[in-house]
Amino acid sequence: ATVLRDRAVSQCKAECFEEATRLFLRALYEFDAVGNHRYAAVVENNYGYLLLCVDRFNEAETHLRNARNRFDELGDNVRRAQVDDTLAHLYIRLGKFSDAEKAILSSISTLEAGDEEALLAESLNTRALLLCRQDRFNEAKGVLQGALQIAQHCGDTERFAKTLLIIGDQLIEKLDRNEVLELRLRLSKSLDLNLQLSTQESIRLILERIR
């Protein structure tokens, strides 16, 4: 189901979405039936993410909130924080910035307490996206620098590159010439790393824009 979810999102294939939906709902029913609430929560979170990616926001929120409640009851704070991050993305898409801020600050607070550096870098990126949508660019810049340091410290090259992409996409007009040159150099060097193909393609597109 998760493979079909990713294919539905990346390739916009309706048949993949329909099959992924069928499998997610079947898995959710069966895990609930046997009392495996942790796996049910994982399935509900994945399904909520899929719905978010295809702009079915009301359904996505329902399943994500259900997943969050399940993880909370299980005492799984890290997965709950990941759901909070996804909820923040949903609220950003809807323009509900107050709800987005509440969700992402909850995620960041939990991950900081749990020493989850890689996931924390991702949530900081989400926080920065929210700040950019609110035209709080200086704050976003500081948050992204923090995310870069954390991703670099824990050796997460994928999240490091994605943070650079956010800077290039959201803040390029707010950078001075030296900062732009530094960003271009870092992005170019990132192409030598073992990154996902989609990330490599995004880097090339950004580099074309900031020649």
Give me the secondary-structure topology.
Elements: H1 2-11, H2 14-33, H3 37-53, H4 57-74, H5 77-94, H6 97-113, H7 117-133, H8 137-153, H9 157-170, H10 177-190, H11 197-209
Describe this structure in words.
- The chain has a domain of 96 residues.
- The N terminus is likely disordered.
- Helix 2 runs antiparallel to helix 3 and helix 9 packs antiparallel against helix 10.
- The longest helix has 20 residues.
- With 211 residues, the chain is an all-alpha fold.
- Helix content is 83%, strand content 0%.
Brief digest:
With 211 residues, the protein is mainly alpha-helical.
* Overall radius of gyration: 18 Å
**Amino- and carboxy-terminal Cα gap:** 40 Å
> Helicity level, as a percent range?
over 70%
Class derived from helix and strand content: mainly alpha
Percentage of residues in strands: under 5%
Average pLDDT level: 90
How many DSSP H or I helices? 11
Which series of helices and strands comes N to C?
HHHHHHHHHHH
List keywords for this structure.
mainly alpha; 11 helices; globular; disordered N terminus; about 210 residues
